[in-house]
Amino acid sequence: MNKYELISRYLSGFLDHEVHKTGFKKVVVGLSGGLDSAVVAVLAHQVFGDNLLCVKMPSHYSSQSSLNDADALCERFGIRSEVHTIEPMLRAYQNETMSPLRIGNLSARLRMVTLFDISARENALVLGTSNKSELMLGYGTLHGDLASALNPIGDLYKTEVFELARYLGVNDSIISKPPSADLWEGQSDENEIGYPYSELDRVLKLYVESRLTKEELIAQGEKKELVELIIEKIYRNQFKRRMPIIAKLTSRTLNHDFNYPRDITL
Questions:
Q1: Helical packing angle, 3-20 and 35-48, nearest 10°
Q2: Is the dihedral of CA 25, 3, 209, 232 positive or negative?
Q3: Domain map of the chain by residue range?
Q4: pLDDT digits (tens, 9 = 90+) for 104-127
């Protein structure tokens, strides 16, 4: 049994246990045509079958190739899907003063609003699709793609998600294309960050998992600019990985000293 077979089995068990113990039987996933959502969709389909609904939410900025890849994935694995465009909502708010970043953040939030509304209709939980590289670097939108009830791939680096996708049989067209959030025309994750995921993940693993210091990383030959970029992003974006911080006024404050176990029984 190889590493990714073990990971696949573990994540399937995680999804089955964590969803059903809440009393839910169904899940929804926002399917973009990209790698991360494809992997989560295939994992969820293995567990939930037709109790999984994938939702495609294109805008006028979405590439046709991404939509085609999402359709091909659903056809290959027999996944139920729906299309709900966010274009009318986005056009209603968008104006000429908005930067690509603002448009991208708004698009991500409109998609999550749509997805959570459909989850209420379906009586289902929303599954997240952010990988560990994105979460550590803060490469995500609060209340947008970072919002979910459960995230099966949040402890897998992007390069590991690629390998899991190959094991699961995700379409080659999805695996081979450059990673992109598809938030505006021509957008590329690696171009936006400035480094390929192979380099980012190598340094992230050494800093996060092996706990090497900045000085140790540079001494063993890592680029000073890359190391500093990663460390700065990790700490600057810590707020994206936490629940809102509550000002402490009483002796029992939520998230400070009022932390009941998640699985507490009444």
A1: 60
A2: negative
A3: 3-190, 195-241
A4: 999 999 999 999 999 999 999 999
CB 68 within 8 A of CB 33: yes
CA 192 to chain centre: 17
CATH of domain 3-190: 3.40.50.620
Task: Evaluate whether 1 touches 7 at the Cβ level (below 8 Å).
Answer: no
Which residues are within 8 A (CB) of 218 and not within 5 positions of it... i.e. 6 or more apart?
Answer: 224, 227
For residue 188, what are its two tokens? 């590329």
- For residue 250, what are its two tokens? 């009483």
pLDDT in tens, 128-184: 999 999 999 999 999 999 999 999 999 999 999 999 999 999 999 999 988 776 665
Q: CA torsion 140→141→147→153, rounded to 10°? A: -10
* Closest by Cα among 19, 39, 32, 34 to 156: 39
Cα angle: 155, vertex 161, 167; to 5 degrees: 125
Residue 237: both structure tokens together: 């974006």
State the Cα–Cα distance between residues 138 and 123, nearest whole angstrom. 30
CA distances 162 to 17, 40, 47, 90, 119, Å, are 25, 12, 20, 31, 27
In Å, what is the CA distance from 149 to each residue of 18, 112, 134?
10, 12, 17
Structure tokens at 210: 């092996």
